[in-house]
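testing teh design pipeline on a random one, pls ignore if ur not involved
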C-alpha cells in the first residue's frame, strides 16, 4: 500500500502541474490512427553533440521512447486501435492464447504454447501463479523529453479495482528514471475467490556525455495473493443446469473456504558497460569501431506458499495442520562480457556467466520407508556465452549462445535468427532455438503437509531438451503468417499417479511430477489479417495446432480463433475518435489441463473434454487527445449459449459483466 500511495501522489502532482502549466509544454501527437508502431529499432548510443535549446513546439510523441530488455526501441503510442482493445486487460498484453479463470487476475489456462526459453536456468515453479510476475526481460526502460505519466484504470468484479500508474522523468537527456506501481484487488463472484496483487518497479538508465559509459538498473518488488476455493463442488446441479437460484454465484458451493497461496519476490538488477576503445568515422561522432567491457548483476529472493487452516481429504492424508507449505528460492547472477563492435563486421560479444542458487524448505522429511527427502538444493553454475548481431542492407542477423561448463542444472541455449525486410510493409524472418536444462525446482524437490506431495527427483529426472524452428512473414497486404515446429525430449509435467493408494474422497491426492521418455512433436500455425471497408473492419486471428505423441501429456485445442467486427470514425468534429464492435473467441474441445492449488500448477487430466463454446464481447472505445476510454460487455452470451464455459475442470469462466476504464497519459 505504501508503494501505491507514493506512486499515486507522485503521478497526481505531475498531472496537476501539467494541467496548470499547459502552455509550457505542448506535445504534438504526430501519429495518426492508421499509423503502425510495430516497427522496432535497436537502441543507439546518443551522439556527442553541443547542447542546444530545442523549441518546445518540436516535441512530438516520438520523443517519448520505450526501450525493451533486448534494447528494441518503440515510442509511446496514444492511438486507439483494435490491438489496444486486445491488450486492455490485467496483463496489459494480448491474451489470445490464454483462457482466463472466473476472477480477474486468478490464473490462465493455456490455449497455445511457446517452449522457447529466455534463460538457461530453472525457475521456482508454481507457473500458474506467475502470469503477472514481471521477470527481468519484462521490465522496460524509458528515454523521455519531459516528465510523462501513464495511468491505467479498470473495474474488476465486485469489490476492488485495477490501477497501473507509472511516472517517468529525466534530470538530463542522458539520465532517465521511472517509478510505477500496479495494484489490483478483485473479490470475485464466487465465494473464497479474492485475488490481490502488487507490482512495484523503479528503473534508471544513463549514458555519459562522451558516450563511453552506459548503465541501466531496476528494482522490482512483487506479490500475488489468491484465495483458493478448489472449484465448484456440485457443478452439474448448481452451474451447468442453469438454475436461476444459483445464478447468484455466492450461493454456489465451492470446495474450500480457508485456503490461500502467495507468490512474493524482490529483485535488484544492474547492467553497465564502459567503452575501452572508441573510434568515430568523422566529426559527426557516428561510431565506427568500439571495444566495451560490461558487467551484469542480478539478485532475487522469491517464495511460493500454500496456506490452509484445516486440511481436507481432497488432497489425501495430512501430516500436520494447519497447512503451511513454503518453497524458497534465492538466486544471484553475474556476467562479465567483452564486446567488439565494427560498422562493417557487426557486434560480437563474449561473456562468462556465474549463477548461484539456493532452493530450500525449513524442514527435512522422512517417508514411512525411511527415505529422506532433503530440504535444500544449492550450488553454482558456470557458463560461457557469445552474442552476435549484424544488419546488411535489408538482412538482419542475430545469434546468442550459452554453454554450461560446470553445474547440474543447465546445459546450453542457442538462439539464431535471420530476417529480411523487403520494405516497410513486408518482412520475412526465420528463428532457431535449442536449449537444454533441468525442469523447475518444484519438479525436483517439494515438501508439503499433504503426505503425497513430498518428493525428491534430482537423481531420476533428466534435462528437458527443446528444439524449435519458426518462420514468419509479415505483410500489410497479405497479413501475418507464422509456422513453428517444436520437438520436446524429457518433457516434464504434473499428473495423477495411478500407483499411489488414493484416500477415500481424495480426487487430487496423487498429483505428482512425471517426465515423458519419448519425444513430442508440436506444430503451431498462426495467421492474422484485417479486412477494411470504409469505416468498418474485420480483424481475424486463427491458430491451428497439432501434437504428435505416444502419451497424451501435451493437450491443446486444435483450433483457436478470434474475430472482431468493428466500426471506427472521428465524431464531434474530430474531437473524439470512436471505436465499437463485437469480438468472437472460440476454441475447439480438448482435454483441458486441471488446476492444483497446492502446487499452483496445472496438471494433465484425461477424463473431461472442455471447450467448444463461443465467447462474445461487445465494446465501445473512445479516444480524446491522449486519453483512451474503454467500455466492454464481456461474455454477453453467457445466459443463452449454455452453462458449459469452463477455464479448467470445476473452474468456470466468468458470467456476463460490464466493465469500464481508461488509459491516460499526462505530459509536463
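output:
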Amino acid at each position: 500500500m505504501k508503494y501505491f500511495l507514493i506512486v499515486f501522489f507522485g503521478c497526481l502532482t505531475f498531472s496537476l502541474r501539467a494541467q496548470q502549466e499547459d502552455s509550457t509544454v505542448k506535445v504534438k501527437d504526430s501519429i495518426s490512427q492508421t499509423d503502425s508502431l510495430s516497427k522496432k529499432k535497436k537502441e543507439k548510443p546518443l551522439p556527442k553533440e553541443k547542447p542546444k535549446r530545442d523549441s518546445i513546439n518540436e516535441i512530438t510523441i516520438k520523443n517519448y521512447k520505450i526501450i525493451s530488455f533486448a534494447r528494441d526501441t518503440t515510442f509511446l503510442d496514444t492511438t486507439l486501435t483494435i490491438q489496444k482493445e486486445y491488450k486492455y486487460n490485467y496483463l496489459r498484453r494480448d491474451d489470445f492464447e490464454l483462457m482466463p479463470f472466473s476472477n480477474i487476475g486468478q490464473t490462465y489456462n493455456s490455449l497455445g504454447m511457446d517452449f522457447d526459453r529466455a534463460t538457461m536456468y530453472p525457475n521456482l515453479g508454481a507457473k500458474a501463479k506467475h502470469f503477472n510476475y514481471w521477470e527481468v526481460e519484462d521490465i522496460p526502460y524509458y528515454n523521455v523529453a519531459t516528465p510523462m505519466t501513464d495511468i491505467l484504470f479498470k473495474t474488476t468484479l465486485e469489490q476492488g479495482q485495477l490501477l497501473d500508474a507509472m511516472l517517468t522523468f529525466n534530470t538530463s537527456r542522458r539520465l532517465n528514471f521511472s517509478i510505477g506501481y500496479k495494484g489490483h484487488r478483485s473479490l470475485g463472484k464466487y465465494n473464497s475467490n479474492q485475488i490481490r496483487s502488487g507490482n512495484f518497479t523503479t528503473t534508471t538508465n544513463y549514458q555519459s556525455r562522451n558516450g563511453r559509459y552506459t548503465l541501466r538498473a531496476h528494482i522490482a518488488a512483487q506479490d500475488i495473493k489468491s484465495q483458493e476455493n478448489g472449484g465448484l463442488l456440485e457443478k452439474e446441479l448448481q452451474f451447468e443446469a442453469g438454475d436461476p437460484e444459483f445464478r447468484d454465484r455466492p450461493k454456489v458451493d465451492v470446495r474450500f473456504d480457508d485456503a490461500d497461496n502467495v507468490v512474493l519476490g524482490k529483485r535488484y538488477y544492474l547492467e553497465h558497460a564502459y567503452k575501452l576503445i572508441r573510434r568515430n568515422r568523422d566529426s559527426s561522432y557516428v561510431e565506427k569501431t568500439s571495444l566495451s567491457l560490461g558487467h551484469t548483476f542480478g539478485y532475487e529472493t522469491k517464495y511460493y506458499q500454500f496456506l490452509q487452516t484445516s486440511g481436507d481429504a481432497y488432497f489425501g492424508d495430512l501430516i500436520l495442520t494447519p497447512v503451511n507449505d513454503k518453497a524458497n528460492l534465492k538466486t544471484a547472477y553475474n556476467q562479465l562480457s567483452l564486446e567488439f563492435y565494427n560498422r562493417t563486421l557487426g557486434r560480437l560479444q563474449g561473456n562468462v556467466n556465474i549463477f548461484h542458487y539456493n532452493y530450500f524448505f525449513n524442514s527435512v522429511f522422512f517417508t514411512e520407508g525411511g527415505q529422506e527427502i532433503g530440504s535444500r538444493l544449492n550450488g553454482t553454475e558456470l557458463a560461457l556465452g557469445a552474442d552476435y548481431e549484424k544488419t546488411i542492407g535489408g538482412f538482419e542477423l542475430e545469434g546468442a549462445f550459452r554453454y554450461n561448463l560446470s553445474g547440474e542444472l543447465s546445459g546450453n541455449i542457442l538462439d539464431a535468427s535471420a530476417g529480411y525486410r523487403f520494405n516497410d510493409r513486408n518482412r520475412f524472418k526465420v528463428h532457431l532455438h535449442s536449449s537444454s536444462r533441468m525442469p523447475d525446482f518444484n519438479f525436483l524437490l517439494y515438501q508439503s503437509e499433504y503426505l503425497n506431495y513430498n518428493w525428491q527427483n534430482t537423481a531420476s529426472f533428466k534435462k528437458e531438451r527443446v528444439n524449435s524452428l519458426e518462420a514468419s512473414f509479415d505483410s500489410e497486404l497479405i497479413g501475418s503468417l507464422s509456422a513453428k515446429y517444436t520437438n520436446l525430449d524429457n518433457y516434464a509435467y504434473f499428473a495423477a499417479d495411478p500407483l499411489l493408494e488414493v484416500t477415500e474422497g481424495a480426487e487430487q491426492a496423487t498429483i505428482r511430477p512425471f517426465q515423458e521418455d519419448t519425444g513430442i512433436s508440436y506444430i503451431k500455425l498462426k495467421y492474422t489479417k484485417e479486412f477494411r471497408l470504409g469505416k468498418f473492419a474485420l480483424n481475424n486471428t486463427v491458430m491451428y495446432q497439432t501434437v504428435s505423441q505416444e502419451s497424451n501429456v501435451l493437450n491443446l485445442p486444435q483450433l483457436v480463433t478470434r474475430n472482431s467486427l468493428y466500426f471506427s470514425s472521428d465524431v464531434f468534429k474530430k474531437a473524439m475518435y470512436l471505436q465499437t464492435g463485437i469480438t468472437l473467441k472460440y476454441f475447439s474441445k480438448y482435454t483441458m489441463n486441471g488446476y492444483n492449488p497446492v502446487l499452483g500448477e496445472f496438471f494433465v487430466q484425461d477424463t473431461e473434454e472442455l471447450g467448444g463454446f463461443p465467447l462474445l464481447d461487445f465494446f465501445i472505445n473512445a479516444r480524446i487527445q491522449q486519453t483512451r476510454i474503454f467500455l466492454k460487455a464481456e461474455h454477453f452470451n453467457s445466459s443463452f449459449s449454455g452453462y458449459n464455459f469452463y477455464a479448467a475442470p470445476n473452474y468456470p469462466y466468468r458470467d456476463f459483466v460490464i466493465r469500464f476504464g481508461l488509459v491516460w497519459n499526462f505530459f509536463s
